[in-house]
Specification:
The chain is an alpha+beta fold. It is built from 13 helices and 17 strands.
Amino acid sequence: MLDIKLIRENPEKIIELLNRRNQDFSYLYDVVQKDKNRRDAIASVELLKAKKNEVSKQIGIAKRTGADTSSLQASVVEYGDEVKRLDQLVSSIDEEIKNVLMATPNLPHEDINVGKDDSDNRELWRYSTPRVFDFPIKAHYELGESLDILDFARASKIAGARFVVYKGLGARLERSLIMFMMDLHSNQHGYTEAIPPYIVNEASMYATGQFPKFKEDAFKLYDDRQFYLNPTAEVPTINLHRDEVLDVTKLPIKYVAYTTAFRQEAGSAGRDTRGILRQHQFNKVELIKFTKAEDSYIEHDKMLKDSEKVLQLLQIPYRVMELCTGDLGFGMRKTYDIEVWIPSENKYREIGSISNAEDYQARRANIKYRPTPDSKLEYVHTLNGSGLAVGRTVIAIMENFQQADGTIIIPEVLRPYMGTDIIK
């Protein structure tokens, strides 16, 4: 959530930055006016309370002299009624401002490209050169069905479209990747392992910025406690420290979290309907950091390197993109996308996003720290990144390591987990 003080002090600049997202945020001028009305009401309340106290003193003096106090007492009642009315007005304005700010995205970073969509993203670098095949390339779903390791027909019978059953070495590949990623990030990169709940409450969804913007993408449970299936490990892991003051000496706090994630994919009708690229249920390893404000972009770049390391060890080609303003996530100020090479499509596809929300999520979730023992509390900065999306890594391995005879070579780093060097 944006800081109302920031909007109040420079509304033109804030609106100009937000408009780079290709929407009109001039409604924030109304928020500035509401904020002024709120502060004026608070000032009036303080003035009325002072008058009420003064009249109360006069009543005390009048009573001691036997004078009539009826008019003074009427004034006290009048002041009290007006204070009550203004307090209700302040409360109402507070709620109105909060609702607007909850639906307002984060400010794009000033240094990123201004653009409409992913076509305006900036490529930063590439790793490795895509393999040249001397035989017809098969898509992962063709390989998976011919090897009987991905079963879409039976998954559809069990659940519906956009689900899959992993079988045999396909199931082992998915499981091996989860273990490999968790081991890499915890043992080599210094993250603390976490497996948070797969169910989250409404407060958790609002705290990370999933709600109200993405309510239609969430799977809501039939439960009067307002429960939802976790859409990404970012939600439960950020909320680990909701309403807490973190010890500055322990920052950055780093988690690597594994969850199964669930998404309606409400806005993707007709997109990527074949295979496992876009599923309602998928496994993901997520990186989360809570940092001091001045360290967040240093830690952001480190997190990117940590995510890249997964693909480097697997020896899969990829590129790194810096997202433009029009492709930036709702709650993020700056995001890098890692895009992996998919041979059957002859293009790169997103496999992970590494983002810095600065204090946007922490303000919503009320996560603070005290920079020095005698300083005021400040909001931490929160970062999240894919470490990586497991299903899409399965796709990348299957397609990049496929052989002419339809078998799939297992990357060397995964062989201790798989117990084999080939899927056949």
